[in-house]
Amino acid sequence: MTVALYPTDVDWHPVSPRLVVVRRGLAMGVLIPLALVLCIALVLVSTIAAIGAAVLAVGLLAWLWWGIGRACESWGYAERADDLLVRHGFLIRRLSVVPYGRMQFLDVTAGPIDRRVGIATVHLHTAAAATDARIPGLPAEEAARLRDRLAALGEARAAGL
Amino acid sequence: MTTTAPEAAAAPAPLQRLNPLTPVLRGGKFFLAILAVVSYQQLPQLGLRRALIALLVVIVLAFVLAYVSWRFTWYRIDGKELQFESGVLFRRSRRVPLERVQAIDIVRPLVGRILGLAELRLEVVGQGTTEAPLAYLTEAEAHRLRARLLALAAGVDADAPEPEETVLARVPSRDLVISVLLLGQVVVGLPLLVIAAITMLVIDIRVFLGSLPVLASFAYGVGSVSVKRLLVEYGFTLAESPDGLRLRHGLLETRAQTVPPGRVQAVRLIQPVLWRRRDWVRVEVDVAGYAGGDEGKAVTGALLPVAPRAVGIHLIQRVLAGVDVATIARRPVPARAARLDPFQWRHMAIGLTPQMLVVFSGRLRRVIDLIPLAKVQSLRLVQGPLQRRLRLASLHPDTAGRHISTVAAHRDTAEALALVQELGELARAERELRRRPN
After folding, report:
1. What is the pTM of this model?
2. How do B81-86 and A76-79 pair as beta strands?
3. FRET label pair with A10: which of A75, A144, B2, B165, CA 20 to 30 Å apart?
4. How many CA atoms lie within 13 A of B257 on its CB side?
5. Would you call A128 and B378 a contact, using CB atoms and an 8 Å cutoff?
């Protein structure tokens, strides 16, 4: 049996299901045309090779579709009394624990596609470059709420270096 | 002019210029920089006379640039800040809060040493560049200014003289040279390089000349670390004074670093395999804010390049009070970690005290990392697919340092999760402890 890498006694918030849509859309939007072009080009060479490539491409794309879904589902965050927990990863699982007092600054970013579907990424920075506390796919209003809350908590518990 | 008027504590000091010899030194640097860009492309095609004229123009241009830049650069100490004004077209005014200063270095490049000039560098946490390089000052002035800045940073009387220091360790040149020669890449690489060169020479001189670029890049691979260590860490002296640890080292460009107390983010004790017979260790230290890139080249992070183990351990106790790496209880990794790292798993362990996380790793090159819990910025658990099958996870304690990144690999998953909890609580207690006096 596998043992959970994440604490189970906290209240995990999932990210918006719209993240999956955006990620899948981006990946498929690039890869499907590419696969089509490749297959059509192969038809000119050999039909069998083209069919083989098409089957392979469909398989890969299906696997990617599923993988992106799992990867997006794996994102989650939990606000505890003194620190923020962020978990993610499907093949390689990661858990970050960032004390509020260690926060240096916060970023909220949203690309053009993110804005259209109304999601944003909250990125927490500490003095350590290795800190990896990024939460993508938050509904815009939740991102704003989290940002304000984290900023307030960070200020209240600020510690020097 | 660079006046050293005694400043009154209340009124801000007048703006000062850097040393008037600055343009001479900077001009040389500008000249080399311009030359590097130009020569590759045009110079050979110009013919000798034109090339000489072009060279002259470049020299004049470089020195004029340096002069103008010097004319438009001022600095002063204003209360608890260092103010720095520069720029001709684009004015830049920068204020560095002194309590944020992580370390102050005095750097003397070779030419600077001849002219008696030194550069003062303030390391502040932030971007990849040194925030306020005061280049150049006379040596005496650099030392005086450093003492003042450190005193202000520590909140003591700024007019106090530079505090006395006690020397903790001096590295004999002989030990340094031997230690570098005993590095793995030198012991293996150097004979290979010599054999390869001789073989080519024996075959044919043209073969040798043809393979020269390959040989040169190989030689760089063999020599870059060792030569850098020799150049940077030559004549290493470590001293302790009330304003912090003082490091002095360097063969051509000498550097005097001061690390204020409590600014150490992590310490690493390293023992390469061939040092084991002499029981030598190397102690590296990580301080927040040491810039990467250009500055990073000159800093190797050594607190002590080579010393007997006892000296190294004693030094660590001095820098990070309250931990004894020789006697600390080691928690090993589970035996199933052997499936992932059969060679090193027996040497992986952690030790934990209320103040400190100690991580042991490496079989040939043994490494001990010490991380004060008060300095931990965040904790991460990472688990790859194979680790998941074996119920293992790696713990990364992140600090603000740049050289040392520690991983406690292959811990039992349940233990790792409990450890994150425990470390988080201990670190919080440490932070609260440090916060209260203010």
Report:
1. 0.81
2. unpaired
3. A144
4. 28
5. yes
